[in-house]
Every structure is written in C-alpha cells, then in structure tokens.
Write a structure and sequence with these properties.
Layout: H1 9-21, H2 23-26, H3 30-60, H4 64-87, H5 94-102, H6 108-121, H7 142-164, H8 170-186, H9 199-220
Length: 223
C-alpha cells in the first residue's frame, strides 16, 4: 500500500482542529458540516495509513502482540468510527449512491442491474477487479461492510501467518479477498439513504481520541 503524501499531513490535522474550534459559531451551517466531514474523513484516512505501517512493521519484526494491537484499533475502532462519521451526512452515504442509480431504472430488473453497476463502479470496476479501487469512495456503509471486511481479513491472515510460521503469499491473499469483494457486489443489502448521528459529536470524539498522537507522528515524519 502506497502511503506517500504529496502534502503535509499535519496541515490536515490543524485544519481539523480549527474547524472543530469554529463549530460553536458555524455548527448549524450545512456547508460547514460538509467540510467538517470531509476534513475529518481525510484525517482518518491518514490514520489508516499510519496503522497500516504499524501493522506491516509488526509483521516484519514478528511482533504478534503489536500486530494484534494495531490491527485491533484499525478494524474495531477507527474504521467503525469513520463509517459512523460518513453515515451522519447525506452526501457521504452509500445508500444515497445506490438509490440514485436505482431511480434511473424503468423496471425492477433494471433497478437491480443499475445497483449492481453502482456497487461495481466504486469497488472492483470490472467483473474480475479489472481496475480494482480505481473509483473508490469513502461512503457510510461502504467503509464498514467493504473496506472494513477487507482490512479484517488482511490482519487475520497476517496473524495466522505469524502464529503458524507459514509465510504470507500476496497472490493467495488476493484470491481470498476477491471473494469478499465480489460478495459485496451481489449481496443486495439495503443501506440507509438518510443520515444518522451527529456529525459534530462524532468528529469531536475522533479528534479527542486520535489527534494528539497523530500530530506527534506527522511532525516526526516516517520512521
């Protein structure tokens, strides 16, 4: 996974802090709330990259406890929190994306096909992952049920590799994870098209939990 950034990661964290500081005056503005979700989303994505580096380092050093810790935070805390944030705003909903596709149909059969295409576009982009993640999106529902499942599988395979002493094979993992990706395309699960939760509250919770260590890490630079 490429974790290189063309910008200063700490600038995003600072923008996040400033936005939350302005929430008392601007919190009722729909435009402000959109920006808050978007900046928080980007900060969380940077954190995902950080935890990936921790996971990779722990695996390479055969440090199973550290791998379990970093993987556990990523899979069971950060990604669910990010999904909740995205689900709190109507413009970051997978359900809205899917419903907009279905609305173009003239029959139930066509609606099913349009939804399948909409799912495919933001994930595999082709029947066999021809351009995997080419048009990937961070949407409420998609982060938890697609990316979260992939990350969980990845961490589990690495843990099993260290526990058993068997090497990790990328090609084998790709075959396994493809079944998860393809399964999402066809699972027909319905997703809400109406937001839930308070954007400010969720963003603030993420900030208090992750901002101090994230800022220190971004200023320290890559290890």
């Amino acid at each position: 996974m490429d974790t290189e950034l063309w910008y200063n990661a700490s600038d995003v964290y600072e923008a996040w802090r400033l936005l939350l500081n302005a929430s008392t005056k601007l919190g009722s503005s729909p435009t402000f709330r959109y920006d808050l979700v978007d900046v928080t989303r980007q900060a969380a994505q940077q954190l995902v990259s950080d935890y990936y580096l921790d996971i990779r380092s722990a695996f390479q050093r055969h440090a199973l406890p550290e791998l379990l810790t970093a993987g556990g935070v990523l899979v069971y805390d950060l990604l669910p929190e990010l999904d909740s944030l995205l689900s709190s705003h109507s413009l970051f909903l997978l359900g809205r994306w899917l419903e907009s596709a279905r609305a173009m149909a003239t029959s139930d059969r066509e609606a099913e096909q349009y939804e399948l295409n909409a799912r495919n576009q933001v994930t595999l982009w082709g029947p066999n992952g021809n351009i995997l993640d080419y048009a990937n999106k961070q949407l409420g529902g998609l982060v938890l049920d697609y990316y979260g499942v992939r990350w969980s599988l990845f961490v589990s395979v690495l843990v099993e590799s260290l526990s058993s002493g068997r090497p990790f094979h990328q090609d084998q993992f790709n075959q396994i994870v493809f079944q998860v990706e393809r399964g999402f395309i066809y699972n027909k699960k319905r997703y809400p098209a109406v937001p839930a939760g308070d954007t400010l509250e969720i963003s603030r919770k993420l900030f208090l939990k992750y901002y101090p260590s994230a800022l220190r890490r971004s200023r320290a630079g890559p290890v």
